Amino acid sequence: MASVSPSAVHLVDGSLYVFRAWHSMPDEFTDADGHPVNAVHGFTRFLCELLERVKPEHIAVAFDASLTTSFRNAIYPAYKANRELPPPDLERQFVLCREIAEALGIPVLIDHSFEADDLIGSSLWSLRGHGFRSVIVSADKDFGQLLGDDDEQWDYARGLRWGPAGVHEKLGVHPHQVADYLALCGDAVDNIPGVPGIGAKTAAALLSHFGSLDALLERVEEVPFLRLRGAASCAAKLREHGELALLYRRLTRIALDAPVPPHADACLRQAGDSARIDELCGRLRFGPLTRTRLRALVD
Questions:
Q1: Where is the 5'-3' exonuclease domain (predicted)?
Q2: CA distance 185 to 218
């Protein structure tokens, strides 16, 4: 993989890495008031390592604040209804993780109607118009739909990076087909059922043949003649659930019109706030190594 150019912007799926830290870090970390801060410790270590390795001039971290208030909930009330809301201890730590990012001079993206995916997608779309390429730091397969020829996705924990061709290797569809693919086969993580009886391989095969969900539904009479196991049944399911598939695509498609700053410097890393870092280090009871790393990143 080619080295990252100066015109790259790193867009970090912050919520993913907070959740990972919450599940992976022992619950022995507490702040000065005795509240758990294991997720903050893990997220801070991740952020320090990312900044030390990449030294990005342009970066932003997006967080979710719309688990029940996203525009998708209005379209489809069952959206993400399978997920429990974060417990108060974790909700509190999300706020602290945002504070850490801000104190390090990293722009933070958050909105109550749009999810972190939408904020990343809208930032990528806007910055592409200013000549930037994007590196999306996340393992989430949904982001595949955003990747242009010069963009990458980086699964930081596994050390894996891929571009548009990697999306096809993983899912069997091209980036512009990912939202259609997820609408067809569903996404259990987000409680999107998809079309009954259509799994990942069938969805990929259908999109390979027809190109898009719209073309598939317009030409559904051709489906029984495909060399596809259960083709006749598949066609019947598509006729019955075609309108739902179009609804699901409204859920699986990442929005590109979320309210993000439109200017080229929107994701320019600012000078860190050393006084705020010192205050957070004391309040969160960070150890000497983490304190040293944080101070070096704001000096």
A1: 5-269
A2: 18
Question: Averaged over 38-55, what is the pLDDT?
Answer: 97
Query: Residue 222: phi, psi to the nearest 5?
Result: -85, -20
The yes-or-no verdict on residue 129 having pLDDT over 50 is: yes
The tokens for 216 are 């598939």
Give the list of residues 6+ apart from residue 227 with CB closer than 8 angstroms, or none.
Answer: none
**3-class DSSP state of 212:** coil
Task: Pick 8-171+255-298's CATH classification: 2.60.40.10, 1.10.15.40, 3.30.70.1670, 3.40.50.1010.
Answer: 3.40.50.1010
Range 19-34 average pLDDT? 93
Of 1.10.10.10, 1.10.3210.10, 1.10.150.20, 3.40.50.300, which CATH number belongs to 175-252?
Answer: 1.10.150.20
Cα–Cα dist 42/151, whole Å: 27
What are the residue ranges spanned by the domains of the chain?
Answer: 8-171+255-298, 175-252
Q: Which residues share a beta bridge with 60?
A: 11
Mean pLDDT across the chain: 94
pLDDT, tens digit, for every residue of 150-196? Answer: 999 999 999 999 999 999 999 999 999 999 999 999 999 999 999 99
Share of the chain above pLDDT 90, in %: 90
The tally of CA atoms less than 13 A away on the side-chain side of residue 80 is: 17
pTM score, two decimals?
0.94
Strand order in the sheet with 160-162: 108-109, 59-62, 8-13, 133-137, 152-155, 160-162
Return the SS3 of 36.
Answer: strand
The least confident of 1-10, 92-101, 113-122 is 1-10
Strands (E), 216-263: none
CA angle 68, 71, 77 (to 5 degrees): 55
- Alpha-carbon distance 194 to 279, whole Å? 48
